[in-house]
Give the backbone structure.
Amino acid sequence: MKTYHSRITITAILFWLCTSVQGQNVSDGFTAEPIPDAVWQKMQGKSYVDNPHIGRSDLRYLRVLHWDYDRQTHQGEIVCNRLIADKLLSIFRELYKAHYPIQRIRLADEYDADDERQMSDNNTSCFCYRVVSGTQKLSYHARGLAIDINTLYNPYIRHAKDGSRIVEPANGKPYADRSKQFRYKINKGDLCYRLFIKHGFIWGGSWRTVKDYQHFEYHPKQ
Ligand SMILES: [Zn+2]
């Protein structure tokens, strides 16, 4: 009887150790912290410029794990508004657990904050300070409240005044036809879409005048 009980106890302890180590590994890959000095330095004059709207203390630096079609775990870095840090950690944790493929999650600074360059490289990124062209209005990326996912395969599409179609990035044109099937495609109703919607984001693929299939943005309550 005693042996039987101790076997159960040992099994229970082993089970607890295994599950807690596993849990530890997963949560260790998903962290949020204030912007470290080295990252802040790298952002200057690239994704960050001096401005009256958003400062270092409004932002958070996230490390997340992600899967790709190579079936490997990759490490990604994101700078976002502190208001959505926990939401993004939770979303990326779910995407990783489900092996949802994401090719690259690098800081915009690695592309000198050039949006066309990072989109054409299929990079996923969030914060980049910029004013909407010709206005003083900040884009949601400028406040770290918007994120673009698998950007090459989920392009931004708008129509110019002459009726011509503009696709960004330019090499994303083959993926502008959303009736086709291809890898990394975000659909209404897929896991990526469902997770962002669940956390209160709006999807650019649902917009009527422009379509921004890579884009999810969050509007904080005033
Ligand atoms: Zn965007």
About this structure: The helical segments are 2-28, 37-43, 85-97, 115-120, 191-198. The CA atoms of residues 153 and 184 lie 6 Å apart.
